[in-house]
Amino acid sequence: MTRTIAFREIVLKVHSRCDLACDHCYVYEHADQSWRARPKVISPRVISQTASRLAEHARDHAIPSVTVILHGGEPLLAGPDRLRLVCEEFTRALSGTAELDLRIHTNGLQLSRRYLDLFAEYGVRVGVSLDGDRAANDRHRRFADGRSSHPLVLAALELLRSAPYRHLYQGLLCTVDVANDPVAVLEALVALEPPRVDFLLPHATWETPPERPDGAPDAYARWLLRVFDRWERLERPVPVRLFESLESTLRGGPSLTESLGLAPTDLVVVETDGTLEQVDSLKSAFDGAAATGFDVFRHAFDEVAAHPGVRARQLGLAGVSGTCRRCPVVRSCGGGLYTHRYREDNGFDNPSVYCSDLRELVDGVEGRTAARQTAPELADPAELARSQEELTRILLARLHGDLAGDPSWARAWELLAGVEGAGEAGADALDAVLGHPFTRTWVLEALDAVREGRPDGPAASRRLAALTAAAVLRGGLELPAEVAYRDGEVYLPTLGLLRLGEPGTRGRALLHATGEGYAVVRAGRTEHRFGPAAGDARWLPVRTWSPGPGEPAVALEDLDPYRNCFARPPRLRLGAGEAEEWRGRLDAARALLLRTVPGFARAAVAGLGTLTPLAGGPRAGGWGEAGRHGPGALGVPYAAGVRETALALLTGRRRARLRELTEVADLYALDGAWQHPSPWRTRPVPVSRLLADVHERVAVEAYRRATGTQEPGGADRIHRALDRLAEAAELTVSGKRLVEELRWELKAVDA
């Protein structure tokens, strides 16, 4: 069964005539002339029935808020009394059901205090149509006798911008005409201090193409890019929805306007007689294009939602033409406005009549903004580390929100706050334990348990208390750190495993930092000391490995109970001899990488927090494994030889780095919407898989060439995959930047 969409926005035609004679108006000047047979003004009966239908729809779909846009013709011609009735009826009908956002789109000619006082009473926001300075506006927006409307619109805007009404000012809508001076148009609009400007392409189809005075297929793009450049030089004095929508989709975010992007449309139009229609712009295509055959008296909104024409605009990527689906900018342009795709012989299964303009506009905005829109984590490892730590803190705060009612959790959280407030030493110590890769693993597992209805507050509290105690000890803080232990032991993240009782026992103990290390205090006295210099058999410290001079030590993590986050199980605690033997293999593997691929070798340990020995022999190639969650966690088969260990370090960190990037930066959107041929796989793969394969194999190719073990045609396959990625519509500006980096890496390998 197909799910019915919910309409969150309705356009209510309150008057079907206009006091201007704009020659580019889709209502009066284009193919559909149905306005001639409709009442001039909406009736009280239609108003009341529409409000009831909308409230019913909002209740059925649990919609939190709905937008009602009063439209025309010119809606102010309905008069203040009829508009008051609209406000009253919709406010009453939706009270207690959904929040009501009332708006009106007007040419401004009738706007006066009596209207604005009414709008202030009901919070109706006002958008005004204006095409720029007087010369631009008079090109189309004139009275029937040819008189200019510009002075009256400016007077209305001056009133709207005055102190009592400024909060009602929603913005300006400007229809593009390439015969106008784009800079003069922008500056005239900016001078009116709108909260937002919308630039709209004039409605056109393949049957009635847009005016192109110079015959160029990209005239509208060039006009809009001149506006963009001036907007940038003015330091973006007002929001421009068209440009902000493009920037949002280029970063992987949603479209912000109906005319661009792949987001489904959730809008329905109610005419003055109660007829329910599709989006108004369809009137430009052909007579009856917007019709549904439904009305508010006989039909619910759900029936309109099931209409094939409405459904066609809910399909996202599947709803655009085959040509558009193959285009790398389709996520941003979305195939253009649905109306602009119309051709008589095949309907709407076409690219937009503005296709060339949209491609150049998207590319032009991307080229101008890519450098500053690229995620900083891509180029700066320190920024990536900061973002990862911030993500862990956000997730921990979310877990706190779920478990704050648990008394043991509340006690541990209070001590955590005390550590953070204990000056620089406390902050540094807390950063260290929160940066421990398996802290993230623990938090995510606990959040999963809460979501699945099996929260284990005591277990989560024990880990939080142990984590806080580790921070207290690391920082040498004079704070009491109470920990709970089970089965006779407690793991202190980043420090080690402390045995506090016999196997099978549980209890609590107080830990303190001392001058010589750490101490366990029970019954008011020091029970025993442990730590770096204590030599206590009850204390198993976390061992470390030093990759090289000046590089941070890496924890050889074979103690943390949350280290089981790899595809294969971890080894149990290594014996002293095994640990030394493993360090030796790691040293030799590191030396091999430095001799053969020094650039990749440095990257292989950058950001590496923990190395976990894994059980079993190496897989083909001996590749390492990134932890499922923990940033900086790497698993390496303990039994791997030096060459396999070197390859494990190299590829494992490449995998981990890409995973860490995707956790904090949008490299692609709509993953899985397209399937791409892969040189290494028999079936097409989503962009995430292809990018991961290429990201890893560039390093592998470098290593194999340097060691004389390369595969024939390996570089050619990588080049083909990079070419495919370069044309992938899913990639954001950050994803494209990463592909460029991979090309440079491969060029260095080829050289």
From TrEMBL:
Q: From the UniProt record, report the name of the gene that encodes this protein.
A: fxsB
Q: Does the UniProt entry include the keyword RNA-binding? A: no
Gene3D superfamilies, per the entry:
Aldolase class I (3.20.20.70)
Output the NCBIfam families linked to this UniProt entry.
rSAM_lost_HExxH, SAM_SPASM_FxsB
| Annotated organism of origin | Streptomyces katrae
InterPro entries reported in the protein's UniProt record? Aldolase_TIM, rSAM, rSAM_sf, rSAM_SPASM_FxsB, Sulphatase_maturase_rSAM
Alphabetic keyword roster = Iron, Iron-sulfur, Metal-binding, S-adenosyl-L-methionine
Report the residue ranges that make up the Radical SAM core domain in this protein. 4-244
Name of protein: Radical SAM/SPASM protein FxsB, inactivated metallohydrolase extension form
Keyword S-adenosyl-L-methionine applies: yes
| SUPFAM superfamilies, per database record | Radical SAM enzymes
